[in-house]
Fold:
Amino acid sequence: MTHIKDIVERENHKKKIMVSIILIAGLILGFVVKNIYHNYKEEQFFKSVKQKEIKVTPKTVKHEVSDIFTEEYQKESDNQLEKWKKDKNYNFSKPLVVQNAYGTYTTSLYYYAKTNRASYAVCTVEAEGASIYRHKLKTASGKKYVTTHEYEIIGLVPGQKNKITMEFYNEDKRAVGKTYFYVNMPEDDVIPAVLSKNTGESKVEMSDGLFALLGHDKANVSNIYLYDNNGVSRGRMPLNKYRTDRFLFIGKEMVYSYDFNKIAFTNRLGRVTKTIDIGNYEFHHDFMYDKKHNKILCLVNDKSKDTIEDVIVSVDVKSGKTSKLFDCEEILPLMRSLAVQRKGGLNTYGGTELDWIHLNSFDLIDDDSLILSSREHSSLIKIKNIYDKPELDYIIHRGTIYNGTDIAKYQLKREGTLIPNAGQHTITVEHDDSLPEGQYYLYMFNNYFGRATSIPSFDWSLYPNVGKFTKGTSYYSKFLVDEKNRTYKLEQQFALPYSSIVSSVQHLDGNIPFSSGMSKMYGEYDKDGKLIKSFSYEANKYSYRVLKYNFKGMFFW
Structure:
């Protein structure tokens, strides 16, 4: 009996195993079938994604407040956008599109749509005569793959019919949506016209980006004007009462001045998130971001002084507190005492304050030192220990204004021959890992203009063929500085369209964008100094600077 019982139990156990196997196989088969079906449906979906035209009529926000840079104005935009977003379920086929939602960029579009598949967006802006403007859009949060798509699309052309193509791709780079629509942007007569363009001998491609004209004709409302690589206007960014001198990119925000003493922070949607008032100071010429200390350093006029363009302040990004960093009167007191007011008793701005050093640009060298460009002295001046005890480190100067003074010992020795810097602008530091410690490059728009109204004894004989106000030759000049040996020498130099004052050069993606203010020109050279393309623009005077930006990390990946 025991034997039969064991046999029965073994058979039952086998049956249970078989049932389990069948159940598991069924589950696996069901999973496989389900997965095959899901993949089939997904593949059918991907195959169904075709580019299609959608009808879009951009909305506009109605404002009661007129000042863009106030929280009241920005909240009016927020409230209207939130109301619109609650009204409908916006998707790729029916997105919410608003023209210049926050007032900070005239030809921008706010775009909002949702989808159940996470993806990133690629936007292409096209218009007749304009260069194709195609980029991966960056969300306000900075996340790449999202189901809520909220962007500021920039770079539409005023006065034209713009084609906007939106493509959405998942992590496998499969398209989950493709649409295009048209937007007619109104004319904008405020924008200066590009009168002509010249194609140079270089075959190098222009760098990606938009040229920003800054300080056009010194107008009271000094808009930022943007142009593409074909010289076509891409709209403007309004300011209040004073030009800005550059864009800074701090975290997720773009930062620029919009008034004589005020700074704006805008996010990736173009919304002004905060402003800072620097108090009894006024901006002039330049400002930079010190990432390590999270401070914006600014060239300013101290309104309580009888001199101008000789003070640097720091603005704490987090607290907004403004502190004087140093006053050049305290670092170069002898040069201040020797300076005289120009003939007629007024400075170039019409005031009685003495413009004895005329700082016009600067750049950080490291965490606690910077290089200043003095137009009046035709000097490059390094200041060290800027946060603790600012003091003179060295000077690059070809003339004789420091001869016979204690300052002369700070001058670096020139090696070899070069066209000296005179009245230079946009001094910029370039570090190179291939260089030994203590060596780096300085490059600039070398105006090579011979005027120093506060230093009548300035001897220009050491500056061969130095330019006059309306005639001369300017240069891109790049020096190699060796701090250990206290020397500098020429690394690269080539001629630029002449401008006695203002103007700029920069490095971008291997090319050299430039602007020559008095020639009313801007454009781009290749790394060897061969012209790629230049443009002439409409102006009664000039633009103070033209800098080029690709907006990577801000609006684009």
Observations:
- The helical segments are 2-48, 71-87, 328-331, 333-338.
- Residues 2-48 form the longest helix (47 residues).
